Amino acid sequence: MEPQLIEKIESYLSGELKKDQLEKYATEHNIKDLDQEIEWVENAQLAIEANGIKLQLSEVIKSAQKEDAKIKPLNKSFSLGRLTSLSIAAAVALLFGILFLFKPGNTDKLYSKYEFVDPGLPVLMSETNRFEMYEALSYYSEQNYPETIKRLSNLHSDGSYNDTIEFYLGVANLYENNINESLPLIEKVSEDENSIFQERAEWLMVLANLKTGDKLKTKALLQTIISDSSHPFYKQALALDADLK
Prior knowledge:
This protein is mostly helical. Helices cover about 65% and strands about 0% of the residues.
């Protein structure tokens, strides 16, 4: 990735540059997969902030300085985009090793290991006076999540709370990797003590946050489940908590 692009993305992430300005720059420079490039820089920044990473990276740059007098030393307001070509090459080699351990690969493997696919509800036409609900849940049982989202979103748009709609709309979004859309829906059900979906929602909240790479939030949510030995996902929560240590 070019240093100039990294600087532009950093400016966007810090709020100094608007998304449309960044997209214009990407178009002008024939940059494809801008969202992936943004995610890479975000991941890199997370890795740099991890324990001890700045010190290691500083040592890399100090070593590079001996061969390239133009390289600026790492300062407090570290920026990926300010590294010159030699230090970027060294830094990227270090970062790829770090990112392999922390994000996204490690959490992706854990997500796959503990993934829970809710089978859905057996809904008969006689059990509901809403044909739309029947259709949506039928699509869900067929694992046609895009169509499920479309149908349930129409039902959800009236603003009223229905834990079945809330749960399956959130879960379908999760399975489609629409994490930002799924989290508030599943969270609402996980806090509903009267919902038959609460315990499943609590576990899916764990998985959704694991998928985002938010290890601290994931561990905090696990403690809620671990504190209740009768929870249906108690054993899975114990095992995942151990894997995250």
